[in-house]
Amino acid sequence: MAVLAGGRSSEHEISLASARSVLAALDPSRYEVIEIAIAREGRWELGQRESRELVSGSEPQSSIESLPVVAEAASPAQALGSVDVVLPILHGPFGEDGTVQGLLELAGVPYVGAGVAASALCMDKDLFKAVLRDRGIPVARNATLRLGDEISNPFGYPVFVKPARLGSSVGISKAHDEAELEAAVALARRHDEKVLVEEFVAGTEVECGVLGNVRPAPIASVVGEIVPHAEWYDYEAKYAEGGSDIIVPARIPVATAARVQELAVDAFVATECEGMARVDFFVREDGEVVVNELNTIPGFTATSVYARLFEASGIPYASLLDRLIELALERHERRSGLEY
Ligand SMILES: Nc1ncnc2c1ncn2[C@@H]1O[C@H](COP(=O)(O)OP(=O)(O)O)[C@@H](O)[C@H]1O
Ligand SMILES: [Mg+2]
Which of 61, 95, 242, 308 has the smallest count of CB within 10 Å of its CB? Predict the structure, then answer.
């Protein structure tokens, strides 16, 4: 199998940390693993010594200049074509957004996680909410600013301003007045042509893991609560030592937790996700549950929220990886019977 890590997005480092954790947990007697690291500028590199067997005659650190769409000799594309399953541990654009998934579809190799359409849909906070609204799943209200649109805010203050397709809170601001709104939109527009202005939702942030395909049916994990030691869950709060606490299970009523789990699976099914997802929510002060976003490749270290939630649900990290690999193989096998 191959673990794909790094990538071109600002979440490069987080992806590498997740991949290190995955590599350490995969049972060496069960899996022969090659690591493919994608550099920040897009260069693909084979990392492990086993790669020498796959790309005979090449240096172990063989690399190419661009995406390996053309099956060059001695390129990672050959390595991709000769593995049983790929585990893309990539966050954000060019990894979690359907692009790499498309490449893996073209290569005809089984891979872990959401397919092309679900990945692209869930990466785009605007399209994602549109689909959820259509299915009657509650989400926060938003206005969408497209290229060339004037800045407008129908919600009053504060509001959240976000690039449509990014993650890790990069490019997101909480704007408290008109001047801050202008700066917030300018910042978000550095990261994406499409920007969301979103009503502020006061309440508790909770997260729920989902695991499964259509069959076996997706299951929801125990619900966890995020307590950022900041005004909101920004980049620092997410990744700095002591920036936030994760409380498992969340300190919410049992019925509310059940509602979160139900909506997590509903969102997973509505967006046609497969394999895994972490669905993030707000619980309003009156108890109403609102979906914030769905991550198709959540942070994946052994201490990341997704792994902790399943650990608390009786599925330890190494078993979680085994199950995800089985789900990838199940999908590939099932779909191999389709006629095109
Ligand atoms: N509408 C909102 N109301 C209140 N807080 C929000 C809202 N949107 C985002 N936030 C805060 O910003 C954080 C990051 O926003 P999110 O949409 O999850 O983007 P990312 O994909 O970068 O994680 C959330 O975890 C939350 O703390
Ligand atoms: Mg988030």
Answer: 242
Of 124, 169, 290, 294, the residue with max ligand 1 atoms within 8 A of its CB, to mutate for a pocket test, comes to: 169
% of residues, the chain, pLDDT over 70: 90
Q: Judge whether 32 counts as a catalytic residue.
A: no
Rounded to whole angstroms, the Cα distance separating 170 from 188 reads 8
Distance CA 279, CA 160 (A): 19
| Confidence (pLDDT) at 82 | 76
Strand (E) or helix (H) holding 4: strand 2-6
What whole-number distance in Å separates Cα of residue 140 and Cα of residue 162?
13
pLDDT in tens, 91-124: 988 999 999 999 999 999 999 999 999 999 999 9
- 22 alpha carbon – ligand 1 mean position (Å): 27
Ligand 1, from 172, 181, 205, 244: best to mutate by most atoms within 8 Å of Cβ? 172
pTM given for the model: 0.91
**What end-to-end distance do the CA atoms of the chain give, in Å?**
27
CA–CA–CA angle 298, 301, 305 (5° rounding): 55
Report DSSP letters for 139-178, one per residue: B--EEEEPTTPPP--TT-SSEEEEESS--TTTT-EEE-SH
Give the distance (Å) from ligand 1 centre to CA of residue 150.
23
Domains of the chain: 2-111 (3.40.50.20), 121-137+202-335 (3.30.470.20), 142-199 (3.30.1490.20)
pLDDT, tens digit, 9 for 90 and up, residues 278-296: 999 999 999 999 999 999 9
- Residue 66: pLDDT above 90? no
Active-site residue 288, yes or no? no
How many Å apart are CA 166 and CA 16, to the nearest integer? 17
